[in-house]
Amino acid sequence: xxxxxxxxxxxxxxxxxxxxxxxxxxxxxxxxxxxxxxxxxxxxxxxxxxxxxxxxxxxxxxxxxxxxxxxxxxxxxxxxxxxxxxxxxxxxxxxxxxxxxxxxxxxxxxxxxxxxxxxxxxxxxxxxxxxxxxxxxxxxxxxxxxxxxxxxxxxxxxxxxxxxxxxxxxxxxxxxxxxxxxxxxxxxxxxxxxxxxxxxxxxxxxxxxxxxxxxxxxxxxxxxxxxxxxxxxxxxxxxxxxxxxxxxxxxxxxxxxxxxxxxxxxxxxxxxxxxxxxxxxxxxxxxxxxxxxxxxxxxxxxxxxxxxxxxxxxxxxxxxxxxxxxxxxxxxxxxxxxxxxxxxxxxxxxxxxxxxxxxxxxxxxxxxxxxxxxxxxxxxxxxxxxxxxxxxxxxxxxxxxxxxxxxxxxxxxxxxxxxxxxxxxxxxxxxxxxxxxxxxxxxxxxxxxxxxxxxxxxxxxxxxxxxxxxxxxxxxxxxxxxxxxxxxxxxxxxxxxxxxxxxxxxxxxxxxxxxxxxxxxxxxxxxxx
Amino acid sequence: xxxxxxxxxxxxxxxxxxxxxxxxxxxxxxxxxxxxxxxxxxxxxxxxxxxxxxxxxxxxxxxxxxxxxxxxxxxxxxxx
Lengths: 529, 80
Known about the structure:
The structure holds two protein chains of two kinds.
Chain A: H1 6-25, H2 30-46, H3 51-81, H4 85-126, H5 144-159, H6 169-177, H7 190-198, H8 205-237, H9 246-277, H10 295-301, H11 304-319, H12 322-335, H13 337-360, H14 364-382, H15 384-393, H16 401-423, H17 427-439, H18 446-452, H19 465-482, H20 487-493, H21 496-514
Helix pairs in contact in A: 1-2, 2-6, 3-4, 3-5, 3-6, 4-5, 6-7, 8-9, 8-19, 8-21, 9-16, 9-17, 11-13, 12-13, 13-14, 14-16, 19-21
Chain B: H1 5-15, H2 35-49, H3 60-63, H4 66-79
Helix pairs in contact in B: 1-4
């Protein structure tokens, strides 16, 4: 189901009507409307045949979590009954072992299913056993990565005793299948969202207006920016060859960087806005990422829910293992305190980014993308004292405003280099583009090649005027958010005339952009992961 | 061995100086400590107090102040 379509609007409107009507008549059962709506959405958008994968995931993690809790209770009772310290310790070990078996079993079932559906064909292709990465015709179920990470996060947190398991499967299924999160996340946490999903409520006009504003902002980003820029991005990167000059590639990467942000964050604003209409606030996924002052700061602001999942369930568990601690100690002895302090985090970071790369797809360019990000962050941490000394020697005031701006631009450039590995699938083409960016930097050819490749509006480097205005609108809103302003509250506080004038201006930019953009721009980049 | 708040503050000062550990309660929320510092704390707790901090306990609430960290280390020491 397309987000910006009559069918989606009708679907959401009907569901809202049923939800709030049920809130008046049967408040205790209001959440059932959300469950039925989410199931219906999944069947329409993903196909009912694919529902079984979601049900298996939900059943495995829900049942596994209950089993863990039962084992914990049994373990506590037996420990209490045991006499002597050694006997108590033996009971603890026995139940720890059983709980680990349940953990591994559930992980094997869920991740095995994901691995088979998402990677098996590509692995066989890489070993020359299949003619193409899609030759087996395995279809990736709609939203699998998101509902799997959502349910695995819940399962691991119950394993870690962060909260008690949910006894009601229908409740849990709603948490896993909540329809706004299925297309491209965010990856929600059970303890943060469950009470909001299960609570009964009446429509709050102010909160609904806030939700609608966010929804409209997301549609604006997606359709006024992303869907226009994608045309020029395709025009450039389907034509890149040995003669392509560096500035053309840089323009292409710049277009991609903006398009990717507008597409992904716009999509997230849409789904967050829809969710807010039902009074459910999902996890934050973006916090002005292009205002980051370092690559690690960027990854704390971009796709935040995936970052948090990886930090809690991969980075720390890996970094505090015994071999990592031993590595730290050895590195401290041999290479000094700084390396010893950072080495385990560096190694864990590289592994996390490799996994995130693989999460995007089992393709070499994603592995290179993961390595690039992991290695750059590792190097920046290892070399931090060198940068400190350099700044002191050059008398650079790192607290100055100009340095902050410099750090933002430097981070944008570092992220942009990483985009080479992300936006092109052919590794040869990636390295050719990197080579030409540096060694074939001829500004004269820029406009001629943009024209030759069929880029719209080559005189303004592929940015048609409504997109330039739309980008400025997003920039101003982002600056306000960065300064701590609640932009939506500020807009809703405005006088009626001023607010209407604002809506009209932004609406006109949107209408003009639509004249340039894709007419069928319903596909979101992250919907494929 | 009794682990005191002073011991924990001393350990923290070895990891990052110039922080007012007596009063600061937003060490993580205000990015005073980053992930590298947290791993250094995990390592130091192991070395100095023979306490192993598991990944599941690495949450902001346990690292936002020296007092919270001290409580965590004391609890883990008691569990052993």
